[in-house]
Amino acid sequence: MNVLVWATPLEPRPWMGPYVKVTHNGQALRYRGATVKRGDPDAAAYLQLDAGQTRLAEVDLALAFDLSQPGRYHLTPQLVIHDLAPIAEAPPRPRERHVRVPLDCNSLDFDLQR
């Protein structure tokens, strides 16, 4: 499949839009990363994943949220693949042909201590 990586951790600059919700001690934290308005994607905005292939991305949560206070944090992914296209259909595709796929991801809790 060809995966449009916009607003996902797989994007070369991973914080180009909020794709997680973070709370601290039950209070929502403000997203501090970039938010961009985009035109149509080019082919470089897609990642080709073959059957059974996986991709891992590591991002620094502190670049997009204030994690300076100790306490309990809760992270809820809100990931959407904005276009998922068959490999036979070379990207990019016009927006009217995009197939959006919300991803069902587990949330997690973590504690930060001083």
Q: How is this structure best described in words?
A:
- By secondary structure, the protein is mostly beta strands.
- The protein is 0% helix and 27% strand.
- The chain contains no helices and nine strands.
- A four-stranded antiparallel sheet has the order 3-2-5-9, with no helix packed on it. Strands 4-1-7 form a three-stranded antiparallel sheet, with no helix packed on it. The protein has a two-stranded antiparallel ribbon with strand order 6-8.
- The chain starts with a strand and ends with a strand.
What's the SSE blueprint?
Layout: E1 2-4, E2 20-24, E3 27-28, E4 46-48, E5 71-77, E6 80-81, E7 84-85, E8 101-102, E9 108-112
Antiparallel strand pairs: 1-4, 1-7, 2-3, 2-5, 5-9, 6-8
How large is the share of residues in beta strands?
25-35%
What is the distance, rounded to the nearest whole angstrom, between the alpha carbons of the first and last residues? 44 Å
Tell me, rounded to a whole number, the average pLDDT.
93
Strands side by side in the biggest sheet: 3-2-5-9
What is the overall silhouette? elongated
For the secondary structure, the number of strands is: 9
What's the main sheet like? Answer: 4 strands, antiparallel
SSE topology string: EEEEEEEEE
Low-pLDDT regions? none
Query: Number of helical segments?
Result: 0
The portion of residues assigned to helices is under 10%
